[in-house]
């Protein structure tokens, strides 16, 4: 194609939620056209799945394995190329370490990787299995009133297995565990692709969705701020009039918006620009718990993961799932993932954030975040965090007391659950389950193996 307008008009229903066309330049995105062939004809591009600051993701047909895959095409600049190669090293470790481990099946697998030469440079490409909706979509489906405990228990156990595999067997820390980055495995993905997008094989392109489908506006496939997902952005608009195209754009935009989260959820921080390979809402808006009885989930998006052997102190994690040691600038370990998991489980059960800090004229958002942690757990942080960490002086005086927030309003985790957890069942057990993962001192925080045996998961 000779121009950006040709590209957008023919192959995508562009909106403000699309990647900027200005980034289609040397060092930037690779220009992809539906029907393109990659890796010497092995992969045929069929549908755009999403985009992020680092890359775009596409549904493709793999002629060798005779199935559909998600192809992540990274920007071509040296910085992004190096980051992609580091991610591949982590993903290959995950793929090869121990396929027989119980946690192996609960981590999304890299199937292939290669480099592709394009007009904007050489792009690293990663190939993943196609997965379903994220846990954030599940939270939305239940209207932020909480996912049924029986489902959350299954999810929690599987994520713990996945984390144990990453931490203990692979020596990897995820560093960005949250609902957006845990995806539902879809066993009959090829059938669903045929039903939802009318894709029957390598020679077919997706058609416009059936106007008479039963999906409603609560059927939201957008996977949060880290997923600028455009499930139906690549429909075939040939033969439609200009007015029909306009109506279709409006319908698709409305469908993608779905039910909006509360203001705090809409304001999630998005500084990493990550995306996932999720496209399929396998439940079609169903809130019937029986649909989820056999749910299988996989931890995805290891773009920010690192090795446990590294001395890590840099800023990680999305705000609401960030551990105290990370905020304060102390060295962190795999235990930081367990903190995130506890926050995620609370959100799944209640539909609300466990920690939702806000700044004021007297203190920062980080100040408020730390204060909320101390108020909830009722513990004083150890001196290595209040005195000896990189940012200790910003938050604490020499006695370990907070500098900018003098009056703390302590609240018990059990009481918070009583107020926010609508199910209300097994509150004591649930509190006991979450508490070991929320220890302010990560030296005292439980690991994945210890948590797996807790009674709440098995009753």
Automatic annotation (TrEMBL):
Residues 243-254 have a biased composition (Basic residues). Residues 200-227, 241-275 are annotated as: Disordered. The lineage of its organism: Eukaryota, Fungi, Fungi incertae sedis, Mucoromycota, Mucoromycotina. It catalyses: L-seryl-[protein] + ATP = O-phospho-L-seryl-[protein] + ADP + H(+); L-threonyl-[protein] + ATP = O-phospho-L-threonyl-[protein] + ADP + H(+). InterPro entries: Kinase-like_dom_sf, Prot_kinase_dom, Protein_kinase_ATP_BS, Ser/Thr_kinase_AS, SRPK. Keywords: ATP-binding, Kinase, Nucleotide-binding, Serine/threonine-protein kinase, Transferase. Pfam families: Pkinase. It comes from Absidia repens. Residues 43-457 form the Protein kinase domain. Belongs to the protein kinase superfamily. ATP binds at residue 72. This is non-specific serine/threonine protein kinase. Residues 210-221 have a biased composition (Low complexity). SMART domains: S_TKc (SM00220). GO terms for cellular component: cytoplasm; nucleus. Its EC number is 2.7.11.1. GO terms for molecular function: ATP binding; protein serine/threonine kinase activity. PROSITE patterns: PROTEIN_KINASE_ATP, PROTEIN_KINASE_DOM, PROTEIN_KINASE_ST. One of its GO terms (biological process) is spliceosomal complex assembly. Residues 255-271 have a biased composition (Basic and acidic residues).
């Amino acid at each position: 194609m000779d121009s950006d307008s040709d590209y957008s008009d023919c192959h995508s229903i562009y909106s403000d939620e699309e990647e900027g066309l200005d980034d289609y330049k040397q060092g930037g995105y690779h220009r992809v056209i539906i029907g393109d062939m990659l890796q010497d004809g092995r992969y045929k591009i069929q549908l755009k799945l999403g985009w992020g600051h680092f890359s775009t993701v596409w549904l493709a047909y793999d002629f060798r394995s005779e199935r559909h895959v998600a192809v992540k095409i990274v920007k071509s600049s040296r910085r992004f190329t190096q980051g992609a190669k580091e991610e591949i090293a982590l993903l290959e470790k995950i793929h090869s370490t121990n396929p027989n481990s119980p946690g192996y099946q609960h981590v999304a697998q890299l199937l292939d990787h290669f480099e592709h030469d394009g007009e904007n440079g050489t792009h690293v490409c990663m190939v993943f299995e196609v997965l379903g909706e994220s846990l954030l979509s599940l939270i939305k489906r239940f209207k932020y009133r909480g996912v049924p405990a029986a489902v959350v228990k299954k999810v929690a156990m599987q994520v713990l297995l996945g984390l144990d595999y990453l931490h203990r067997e692979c020596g990897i820390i995820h560093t960005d565990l949250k609902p957006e980055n845990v995806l539902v495995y879809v066993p009959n993905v090829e059938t669903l692709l045929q039903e939802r997008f009318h894709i029957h094989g390598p020679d077919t392109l997706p058609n416009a969705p059936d106007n008479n489908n039963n999906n409603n506006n609560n059927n939201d496939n957008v996977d949060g701020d880290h997923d600028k997902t455009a499930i139906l952005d690549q429909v075939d608009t040939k033969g439609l009039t200009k007015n029909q195209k306009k109506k279709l754009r409006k319908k698709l935009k409305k469908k993608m918006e779905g039910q909006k989260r509360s203001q705090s959820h809409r304001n999630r921080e998005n500084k990493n620009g990550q995306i996932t390979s999720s496209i399929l809402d396998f439940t079609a808006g169903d809130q019937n718990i029986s649909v989820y009885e056999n749910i299988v989930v996989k931890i995805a998006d290891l773009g920010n993961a690192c090795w446990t052997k590294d001395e890590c102190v840099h800023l990680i994690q999305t705000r609401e799932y960030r551990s105290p040691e990370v905020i304060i600038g102390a060295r962190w370990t795999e235990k930081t993932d367990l903190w995130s998991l506890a926050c995620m489980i609370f959100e799944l059960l209640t539909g609300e954030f466990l920690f939702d800090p806000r700044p004021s004229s007297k203190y920062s958002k980080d100040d408020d975040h730390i204060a909320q942690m101390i108020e909830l757990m009722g513990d004083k942080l150890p001196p290595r965090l209040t005195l000896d960490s990189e940012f200790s002086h910003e938050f604490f005086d020499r006695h370990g007391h907070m500098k900018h927030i003098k009056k703390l309003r302590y609240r018990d985790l059990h009481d918070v659950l009583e107020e926010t957890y609508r199910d209300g069942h097994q509150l004591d057990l649930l509190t006991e389950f979450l508490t070991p993962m929320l220890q302010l001192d990560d030296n005292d925080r439980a690991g994945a193996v210890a948590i797996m045996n807790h009674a709440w998961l098995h009753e």
